[in-house]
Amino acid sequence: MIQKFLSRFQYNSPVVLTYALISVLALLLNQITNGWTNEYLFSIYRTGTFLNPMLLVRLCTYIFGHANYAHFISNFTIILLVGPMLEEKYGSKNLMEMIAFTGILTGLIHIIFFPGVALIGASGIAFMMILLSSYANYEKGKIPLTLILVAIIYLSGEIIDGLFSKDNISQLAHIIGGLCGCLFGWVITSHTKSTSAIE
To answer: Which pTM does this prediction carry?
Structure first.
């Protein structure tokens, strides 16, 4: 009976759903440990040398952590809406590599320029997905108007907020994520179009 009921559900986007589940677990662990796991495992900040093993671990795990439920929801509402479409279009392996690359690059830039400030959360990944999704109907040789509009709405807002507001939100992570999304979209679609043209 239970097996029949469960068989109705489809794990339709393995990378996105697994990412969400790990992040839920990280959020619960943070509540149980009274903030200890976020401080030592799910946030990135410079500690000693770049060869510190925990620094390397946190460089990969900070994208799973969130300060609270509201922070988690603000990121994963976007990721769960846009992510499955991107995973279907570009493939699970490619999306996982894009998430990893964006997370590590953002973390590295953050600890270089803001060594005394901790970074936590998936907002860079969410912004990467937002900009990447604007390439959905890309045609070779043309610039998608959706890309321009999304870039203006999201990235310009983040640049203005970064210059004028003091809100403990890392606009740099958002901007880097968005730029990564643009880069991935351009590289993948250009490669796909040129490959299909040869065939």
So the answer is: 0.83
